[in-house]
Amino acid sequence: MTEKKENVAPEYDLNAKWDHCLDLTTRRFVYSSLGGAFAGLLFFRSPVTRWASIAFGAGLGIGSAYTDCSRTFGASSPNIAAPKSTETSVSQAADE
Q: How does DSSP classify residue 77?
């Protein structure tokens, strides 16, 4: 009647990562939707704009949860840098 549990390092435990991500996504979706509903009731009169504020809040919650979950699973994020300029400045061109 004893269960065998394997000791897996936390960085390789996919079940724990999925549980964490589902919990995080659910909480952020609900809380940000409620925040959007509160803001909609506070600032808008039209039902359409109130629903839009709820949808915007839900999107923010899901987007932030997706970002954190991608970090949890170790996905590399692209490094965005300014493109290197190959043009010479006007003063350098005049000196030559």
A: P
- Is residue 57 within 8 Å of 32, Cβ to Cβ? yes
Length of the chain: 96
Burial class of residue 90 in the structure, from the number of CB atoms within 10 Å of its CB (0-12 exposed, 13-18 middle, 19+ buried): exposed
The two three-digit tokens of residue 46, written as one number: 């039209």
Contact by Cβ (8 Å): 37, 54: yes
Per-residue pLDDT tens over the stretch 7-35: 776 666 788 888 989 999 999 999 999 99
Q: Are 24 and 65 in contact (CB under 8 A)?
A: yes
Q: Which residue type occupies 82?
A: A
Query: Cα dist. 71→33, 47, 59 in Å?
Result: 23, 36, 18
Residues sharing a CB contact under 8 Å with residue 64, sequence separation 6 or more, in sequence order: 28, 32
| Model pLDDT for residues 34-49, shown as the tens digit of each residue | 999 999 999 989 999 9
